């Protein structure tokens, strides 16, 4: 498809429903493009696999918001003060050596061996949710499963007290949406932000009183020992609660939609659950819910894969575009459960590789396997064109997924 004049708009229903034709056109022209987001923010988007892989490992690029220029901060750094300084100094916005110190605090909780040991409990959670499905009528797999399962798993993994877990509201995750100061939704946004900040304070108070050997208790202890400031502590809990569940919710939906679009692969996976690990890797590559990375910045003007990028301009990598690059993945637009090797970038790469990747993989395997086992012959209950793709800036997913079964 022909490319519009730069900057290329990365928003709108058509784009969110299927961004891949646009990504193909961008990759074929050059690896780096100027793009625009609905908030008015412009960025440099990296698309090809090799360029994406190199960018994710480029030591010239930093994640700290202080590196952004005034124009970027005016439009993209939309969380008001003091909340921005109190909640936005987590892992995603840190560079070494601070990033290294903070990352070490969370790695044990998400270690593959620990995740594998918790699989039986995660399966119990999935089974309990499915057992509560209505006996008849269309089932919204977002409302009934995908929006609940990742949070319940996360709560178990990080040690969120059961009473506080029951009080968490999913809409608090909307505080990462691009709601600028002049947006009519701004009052609602700030109200949600204040509620979430109060909730985080309650979590910290509870863990300070009760202690424990879980991740949340460990972070509170790290603060008491001076390893984390109070702002860094709150920010890391904020990141866990918001980024630790919504991407998995969305990935469950993109995986199920991909299977519904490929009935032969759906039938094969239903008949052979042993394929789940490799099938999940291919589903992650085929349509990653974490579509775009968060911002990166150059400290000084420099070349980026043939484009001159000014210091402080925002740089984003399209993980979806990289994962469909035919230069790296033969027949890249085909869903192929036998693809090997499959070095997709769905969890990023380099020092900011998702620390929760092992947990996300286990969740996806359990979620897809459980739903295929308990809902034989499931199919969409509405025309596919009526699915509502979430207008998120960085992620892909649908807000509802109504299905029926045989």
Automatic annotation (TrEMBL):
Sequence similarity: Belongs to the cytochrome P450 family.
Question: From the Swiss-Prot or TrEMBL record, what is one GO molecular function term?
Answer: heme binding
Q: Which CDD domains match?
A: CYP107-like
Q: Name one GO cellular component term.
A: cytoplasm
Gene3D superfamilies hit by this protein: Cytochrome P450
Q: What is this protein called?
A: Cytochrome P450
The top of its lineage is:
Bacteria, Bacillati, Actinomycetota, Actinomycetes, Pseudonocardiales
Q: Where in the cell is it found?
A: Cytoplasm
* Originating organism: Saccharopolyspora spinosa
Keywords of the record: Cytoplasm, Heme, Iron, Metal-binding, Monooxygenase, Oxidoreductase
Specify whether DNA repair is a keyword of the entry.
no
The record's annotation in Pfam families points to: p450 (PF00067)
**Annotated PROSITE patterns:** CYTOCHROME_P450
């Amino acid at each position: 498809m022909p490319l519009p004049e730069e900057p290329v708009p990365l928003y709108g229903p058509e784009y969110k429903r299927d961004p891949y034709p646009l990504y193909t056109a961008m990759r074929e022209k050059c690896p780096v493009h100027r793009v625009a987001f609905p908030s008015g923010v412009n960025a440099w988007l990296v698309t090809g696999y090799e360029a994406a892989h190199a960018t994710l490992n480029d030591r010239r690029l930093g994640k700290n918001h202080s590196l952004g220029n005034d124009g970027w901060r005016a439009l993209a750094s939309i969380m008001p003060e003091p909340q921005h300084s109190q909640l936005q100094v987590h892992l995603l916005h840190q560079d070494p050596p601070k990033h290294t110190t903070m990352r070490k605090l969370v790695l044990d909780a998400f270690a593959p061996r620990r995740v594998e040991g918790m699989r039986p409990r995660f399966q119990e959670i999935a089974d309990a949710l499915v057992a509560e499905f209505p006996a008849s009528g269309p089932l919204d797999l977002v409302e009934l499963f995908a929006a609940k399962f990742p949070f319940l798993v996360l709560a178990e993994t990080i040690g969120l007290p059961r009473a506080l877990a029951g009080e968490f509201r999913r809409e608090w995750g909307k505080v990462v949406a691009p709601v600028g100061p002049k947006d009519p939704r701004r009052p609602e946004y700030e109200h949600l932000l204040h509620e979430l900040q109060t909730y985080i304070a309650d979590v910290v108070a509870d863990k300070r009183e009760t202690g424990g050997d879980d991740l949340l208790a460990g972070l509170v202890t790290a603060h008491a020992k001076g390893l984390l400031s109070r702002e860094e502590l709150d920010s890391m809990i904020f990141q866990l609660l918001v980024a630790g569940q919504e991407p998995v919710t969305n990935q469950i939906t993109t995986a199920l939609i991909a299977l519904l679009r490929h009935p032969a692969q759906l039938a094969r996976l239903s008949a052979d659950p042993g394929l789940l690990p490799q099938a999940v890797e291919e589903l992650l590559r085929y349509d990653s819910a974490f579509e775009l990375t968060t911002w990166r910045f150059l400290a000084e003007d420099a070349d980026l894969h043939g484009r001159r990028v000014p210091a402080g301009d925002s740089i984003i990598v399209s993980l979806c575009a990289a994962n469909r690059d035919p230069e790296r993945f033969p027949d890249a637009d085909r869903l192929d459960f036998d693809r090997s090797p499959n070095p997709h970038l769905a969890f990023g790469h380099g020092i900011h590789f998702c620390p929760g990747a092992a947990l996300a993989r286990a969740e996806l395997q359990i979620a897809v396997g459980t739903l295929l086992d308990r809902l034989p012959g499931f199919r969409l209950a509405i025309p596919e064109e009526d699915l509502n793709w979430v207008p998120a800036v960085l992620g892909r997913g649908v807000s509802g997924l109504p299905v029926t079964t045989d």
